## 1
Amino acid sequence: MSLVDIQAISKSYGSLPVLKDVSLGVAKGEVVAVIGRSGSGKSTLLRCINGLEPIQAGTITVDGVRVNDPKTDLRKLRQEVGIVFQSFNLFPHLSVCENITLAPRVVRKQSPDAAREVAREVLHRVGLEEKLDAYPSQLSGGQQQRVAIARSLAMRPKVMLFDEVTSALDPELTGEVLKVLEAGAGSGRPGGHDHDPRHPRDGLRASVRLARRLHA
Amino acid sequence: MIRTFSSIDVMYLVAAARWTLALTATAFCGSALLGLVLAIARISPIAPLRWLVAAYIYVVQGTPLLVWLFVIFFGLPLLGVSVNPWLAAAIAFSVYGSAFLGEIWRGALISIARTQWEAAASLGMSMSQQLRYIIIPQSVRIAIPPTVGFLVQLIKNTSLAATIGLVELTREGQLTAAGTYMPFAVFTTVACIYFVMCFPLTQWSRSLERKLDVAR
Ligand SMILES: Nc1ncnc2c1ncn2[C@@H]1O[C@H](COP(=O)(O)OP(=O)(O)OP(=O)(O)O)[C@@H](O)[C@H]1O
Ligand SMILES: [Mg+2]
């Protein structure tokens, strides 16, 4: 069974339909890229998967848990579903280290030392160990994006959602970061598996990667 | 017996100012505790709670503080609850202050971008963890200047407690004026003492505002 299973979902913002009858399955270890033109609903799709946006029809199941079931504990679900936002959304009042260690400490109850170790390790993977004590405002866009990736990785989620994963990176770094993501997926396969989510609008272009990473 | 307004009287006024400060401190603590609860209730997802708190705030802000002092000081004894001037003043000022601080802090809380809540929620943090670690620390910066401004208003407003017989700075001034028949000299001194208490706070609030503007 798919780790992420999206069945015929529809989503609209008020009277604006964004997703119409979209279905998608992502298996364990699989890397899927969702592509589509600007405004086509890629970010919306990812936000639906971790329950940030309600859907009007269909079902989303992550690791057997129904996202849109009122009985579902979204907090628990979100611990297993990492997301890197298009605008990163780092916490500006916290250092890079604190950005990364906060959730492992307060949500996963890791000790500060253990959390800091994990922070070092994930920062190393995105090539930013030297920025451990910097603040987000002191980082470039690409660096912020990599910290956001590290912040998600530190929770060791079962599923990772990347919105515009390489938008803020130069071509050289894009390769690096994609390698990190592929290593995370543990598939060893180069490149992702592109998938057409049967979007209402056409003209699809590479843009968002919906990636799945194996539990380390 | 008529005596002249001497340095001893000034000493008594300064001593009475301690009660002004004590009432201010008590009222500020009461206002802050209740105000924080109100501010959070105002942004809670539970609509009836929001309406209830909004109603409380509108009622308190739409009625004079002096009336609250009288209602509590003269009204509670009618219900069989005995109150001394100190307790009545502490309650009345806390009720009044909580409505103002509640609004100030609600404004500060909602000025934090929704994406910060989302980023925290996506890491599996609970509502209270999101508030405690992400939203409140960022809104404190915004809330400090208006909160200090409120504190200055509070110091001056505690003079209303003189009307129910609490011997703070203004009441001591009234007593001294009655004893010396030198109301002009006495109340000028009283004004100076209020000014000495308020002015540094006003300046501090200004400098904080400037700092925040620069930081932005
Ligand atoms: N909160 C919202 N309220 C109302 N409409 C929204 C909201 N968020 C997105 N939309 C609309 O939904 C549509 C899809 O937006 P979305 O952000 O998912 O697009 P996208 O595919 O991620 O685009 P891009 O490549 O530019 O990031 C757009 O038309 C957008 O205007
Ligand atoms: Mg987008």
Note: Residues 7-42 of chain B form the longest helix (36 residues).
## 2
Amino acid sequence: MKPGRGALSGSPEAEIFGALRRGVGVALVLLLWELLARATVGSYIIAAPSEITRHMLGHADLLGRALATTLGSAARGFLWGNLAGALLALAAVLMPRGERLLSTLALLVFCLPLVATGPILRVLYGPGSGPQVTLAAMAVYYTTFLPVLVGLRAAPQGWFDLVRSYGRGPVTVLREVRLPAALPYLVAGLQIAAPAAFLGAMVGEFTGAERGLGVLTVRALRALDLPATWSIAVIAAGVSMLAFAAVGALGRRLDLAPPEVLLAPPVARGRRPWANLAEAGLATAVTLLLWKGSMELFGLPRFFAKRPEDVWGYLVAAPGADAHRARLLGALGETLAMAVPGYLAGLLLGAGLAMALTLRPRLSGAVIPLSIALRSIPIVATAPLVVWALGREATGTIAVVALMIFFPTLIACQHGLARTPRAVLDLFAVYAASPLRRLLDAQLPAMLPALFASARMAIPAAILAVTTAEWLATGRGIGALMATVASTSDYGMLWSAIALIGLAAVLAHALVAALERRVLARTSPEQLAR
Amino acid sequence: MSARPDICLVGVAKSFGVDGRRVEAVAPINVRLAGGQMTALVGPSGCGKSTLLRLIAGLEATTEGTITIGAETPDALRRRAGLAMAFQDPALLPWRTVEGNVALGRALARKPRDPKVVRDLIALVGLSGFEGRRPAELSGGMQQRVAIARALAGEPELLLLDEPFAAVDALTRDRLNTELPPLWEARGASSVLVTHSVAEAVRLSDRILVLTPRPARIAADIAVPLPRPRGAEVLASRAFRALCAEVTEALRVHQYPDTVAAQ
Ligand SMILES: Nc1ncnc2c1ncn2[C@@H]1O[C@H](COP(=O)(O)OP(=O)(O)O)[C@@H](O)[C@H]1O
Ligand SMILES: [Mg+2]
């Protein structure tokens, strides 16, 4: 049953009053924003709402057409990406032995930096909307793959036994149990995917597209056109929030209960170290094979489509490899110095705020809806603004990364904290334990699975944020390097950077997963048992 | 097709490999359960009752020995949907209504759709008027009754019940104990019931197998020759109380052998 709303809130007076209060709140925020913008007008950071409105009205035609273009690409990418994600999950469930390999490959492709894949796709597709659609699809398939996989598996053993006890096979299990059980997870995945597809399409337009909001963004940034940049960021944020809300409404319409856990911890199948090593070796081999195989299959020219052995030569064997390596690793070092602090700060702040809010539940009523709304904003589209605001020094980039991770972590941890079993909370209530005590002894352990799931999902997010900030704003690190070499057709370096980032992402993921298993084995072994 | 199959266990044993160690759940058991009877399995928790039931259902493979039901293996019986099981956990599908869940029992057993049978069963377990509700809107006892209706909906030849009343409150449990036996008696199914309650075992079954702590062995094999239907007068009878005492004693002797040795 749905929680009943307060007696007052149903009456028309209360509704009018509520709307009034919300209206006053919005007006107040706009007023503050306007004042702040006028006070800092010399520093070229904040555009005032009045300026933004004027710009939007003045360029309504242009913005409208650009928005339509981007929405079209995003919608097609949304469709293909989610289809791919759902089918991959289905394949992983139907072939449990291949699941680890499939998950690793899916993660790897998801971690490919848009900054580099954009130009490559542009060369592959030529002009048109192909790259935007592909990037939009690549931005969403993984966040649909993971929850659908959990949903397909999450059914209790009893439901499988039930079907088996009637002598029915896997097809019936799929139809009667797995697919219906996965539906809420699919909708949850689609909800995350909706803003992500829009973001992916926008980033796809950054490189060589003719039309769309992404094109306007790059143009506005180059011209330091503050009202234009802010207008686009506001439009992107608005569209993303609408898309997020629309899919959420669809879920409620279908009367689906929101899923319990979205991201299950990774399964440790191979207990022995050599089994894990063998799996890693297999994943590497399959990756290299797919990389080379697809290039040969489509007969891609060697000048542009570097094979694995070309990258090896470029970084290790060929003359000048030392210089290549030094340049690449130097850039990676710069990037890690931003990405790692930003990553940790985003996670800690998100988890910390979630915990603080359980101690001050009154505050969470205000903070949570706000964060749910902000989570759907494409932070990356606002990255230049953040970097402008905080400066090109480390702070700006670190803040972009942290922001990108902060909101999803906050929401996930909130969710985790709320899953503390009722009986455990009652126990602490019986002994009149302090809220802090309850938090540390009961709620924190319940939150850890959600925190670790966020930590894993935050890795691709951090890569996306840091490379985009470097590319669009700071001009340093591996993001800027990739942008530079893409524009000078130095494809050896570009492919080397992609390979290095992919490797780093998979290693980081394995590190977090190992830590996760160790910690959860102690705090919540039931999460690991399967 | 024998509608009342005998269940025959020959040297049936089961052990699980857990983290490289072997856990023996069921020691070699030989027993023949006559067709059309209800047999109750009682024993301390963790002794292997559920495992034994799952072996009979063919949901687990035996480590040693063979099980035949009528002339078939459990797998064969299961494949032609001659079996129904009610689990300790009602295992209702939350996205189906009460009616949908009961109808699923027929669909899975490949019986033709029959809304009337489904509604009659729902009425029988006392849930008329709740046909359109979802499991989440029902109490634990109501959910369990839906699960029992679902098990009966497939018209099974063999009914396996694993502590089906564990989550049901005492009053409802008492009602179900009164109302359900006529049902499966009328259908002539063979049935095996796992229960924790000695009184329930005596009240419902024709024969009680008392199991030892893990690994499960048959500690006592007690016939229950009480007349049916077993109304209030039977429950108040001396014979009923004597049987309860006998089962309780068998349980005690085997659960706490030390206390017996000390006497
Ligand atoms: N799938 C399994 N894997 C490992 N051990 C199991 C499994 N199923 C049951 N066991 C073990 O077998 C023993 C008997 O379990 P069970 O049959 O569920 O007992 P009961 O139903 O009598 O309470 C227990 O010790 C349990 O831990
Ligand atoms: Mg049991």
Note: The CA atoms of residues 359 and 435 of chain A lie 6 Å apart.
